[in-house]
Specification:
alpha/beta, 8 strands, about 35% strand, single chain, about 170 residues, 4-stranded mixed β-sheet, 4 helices, two-stranded antiparallel sheet
C-alpha cells in the first residue's frame, strides 16, 4: 500500500556570497535542483538568495510542472556577489512562513551556506578600542511559530564531498 506524504511548504535560503563561488555554487545549484525534483504539485517552494542582503527570488509557489521549471531557471541563473548576511536572510525566511495565507501541513527552512557571515561584531577590549571580528554563522534552531517547529541547520560546503555524492 502506498502512503502519500504530507504537502510541504519549503523555504530555501541560499548563500550566494563570494565565499560560495566556484565549486561551492555549483554544488548548491545541484542540491537545490535535486531537492526541487522531489517536490510535487501539492508542495510549495520559496527561493531566497542572500549575499549582502536577502532577496526573495521566488515566492511560495506550487511545484507544478510550471513551478518546477521556474525554480530550475532561477537556480541556474544564480551568481555570487559581495557580502554575506545570514541573519537578515533568516529573518526574511521566517517572515515568508509567518505571512502564509494557506499553510501546508509541513513547513521547513533549508539554509545552504558555507557559514561565512560578513556581519561585523564590534567588541571592546581593555583599552576601549574597537575590534572587528568576522562571525561564523551559528547553527540555528527556531520554534518561533506555535503551530510548527522549524529547524534550521547550516553546514560547511565541501566541494570534494559534492563530487563523490552527486557524480
Amino acid at each position: 500500500m502506498f502512503l502519500r506524504r504530507a504537502p510541504s511548504d519549503l523555504v530555501t535560503v541560499l548563500d550566494v556570497s563570494e565565499s560560495m563561488s566556484g565549486a561551492k555554487l555549483q554544488m548548491l545549484k545541484r542540491v537545490v535542483g535535486l531537492l526541487n525534483s522531489f517536490l510535487d504539485s501539492a508542495d510549495r517552494l520559496c527561493i531566497i538568495a542572500f549575499a549582502a542582503t536577502p532577496k526573495r527570488l521566488m515566492p511560495l509557489r506550487r511545484m507544478t510542472a510550471q513551478g518546477q521549471g521556474l525554480a530550475h531557471s532561477i537556480i541556474d541563473r544564480l551568481v555570487c556577489s559581495q557580502g554575506s548576511s545570514v541573519y537578515e536572510a533568516l529573518k526574511k525566511d521566517t517572515k515568508v512562513l509567518d505571512e502564509r495565507r494557506h499553510k501546508n501541513t509541513v513547513a521547513s527552512i533549508i539554509l545552504l551556506s558555507d557559514s561565512q557571515d560578513d556581519s561585523v561584531q564590534v567588541n571592546h577590549n581593555n583599552n576601549d578600542k574597537h575590534t572587528n571580528q568576522r562571525r561564523k554563522s551559528p547553527q540555528v534552531s527556531s520554534t518561533r511559530f506555535a503551530y510548527v517547529e522549524i529547524l534550521v541547520c547550516s553546514s560547511d560546503f565541501c566541494p570534494e564531498l559534492a563530487v563523490d555524492t552527486f557524480s
